[in-house]
Amino acid sequence: MARILAIGIATLDIVNLVSAYPSEDCEVRALDQRVERGGNATNTLVVLSQLGHACSWGGVLAEEADAAFIRADLLIHNIDLSHCRHQPGGKNPTSYILLSQATGSRSIVHYRDLPEYDFEQFRRIDLTAFDWLHFEGRNVDVTLEMLVHTRRMAPHLPVSVEIEKQRTGIERLFALPDLLLFSRAYANASGFSDAISLFAAVRPQARQADLVCSWGETGAQAQDQAGVLYASPAFPPPCLVDTIGAGDTFNAGFIDARLRGLSLANALQSACRLAGRKCGQQGLAGVVDD
Questions:
Q1: Are strands 3-7 and 132-136 parallel, antiparallel or unpaired?
Q2: Average pLDDT of each block of 10 consecutive residues along the chain (290 residues)?
Q3: What is the 3-state secondary structure (H, E, C) of 163-202?
Q4: Rounded CA gap, 72 and 162, in Å?
Q5: How far apart are CA 140 and CA 117, in angstroms?
Q6: CA Rg, the chain, in Å?
Q7: Most buried in the list 57, 64, 104, 213, measured by CB within 10 Å?
Q8: What is d(CA 3, CA 131) in angstroms, rounded to the nearest whole number?
């Protein structure tokens, strides 16, 4: 069992299942509706907790009604909240999600009125108490400050950063982590049509890191620090049910595999298998096959 800290956000997800994605300016009836706790960092922790790790979250919760729902869900999954900041006022991030029954894909409208986790809160954490540190690649200036602090205070602590979206200056984070986890959405938004071309562009800025990019239904690829490439196919479920959180599940599977000493090639395959399992079920509970 490893001790893992993740820094990022938790959200309230309101998910409407529709038969097919609606066209503009029309009205459709939802087939089902559910309310879940979401957020990339906390999703990854929930899966890592099911994989047997001791997980802690550093993030912000507004002191309003939705926080009780988010907190309760994280506690059910044994996520330690002692490093959270509780913010008077504001609104917890909320994602309004349309989930297409026809394709299993999702579209998200996100709203937030809450400050990001700040460096002063992070600086109080004893990083030597952890075996792995994971960041969402957001709030670039502060995340960079956290990464520099981590390298100074805990130089041997493995650090991963998820690069999900194209954000101004996010490339400044590339030179510090041991592992960069890219999404296909980031690659496409940055003008790359495949993971290999993304790796070639990123490598001069991240010579110290293993690079990983998940590519949905085609699987995932990785490149080690020496430039050697690895690939794994996807492992789709018998029936595609729900892709919400699949990328976060992939990241958790990869981190778990590396903590267990698996090679880069085997870690890729393990992560793809777990993400495929997630796509065949609703939500994250029970995603790990005991």
A1: parallel
A2: 97 92 90 94 98 98 92 96 93 90 85 93 97 97 98 98 96 98 97 97 98 96 98 95 93 98 98 96 88
A3: ECCCCCCHHHHCCCCCEEEECHHHHHHCCCCCHHHHHHHH
A4: 25
A5: 12
A6: 18
A7: 57
A8: 5
CA 232 to chain centre: 19
For 43, the token pair is 């999703």
> Cα–Cα–Cα angle for 164, 167, 173, nearest 5°?
80
**Which residue type does 116 have?**
E
Q: At what angle do helices 246-259 and 264-279 cross, to 10 degrees?
A: 150
Round to whole Å and give the CA distance between 182 and 74.
25
Which residue, chain included where needed, has tokens 């999900």? 164
Chain CA centroid to CA 142, Å: 18
Angle between helices 65-76 and 40-50 (to 10 degrees): 30
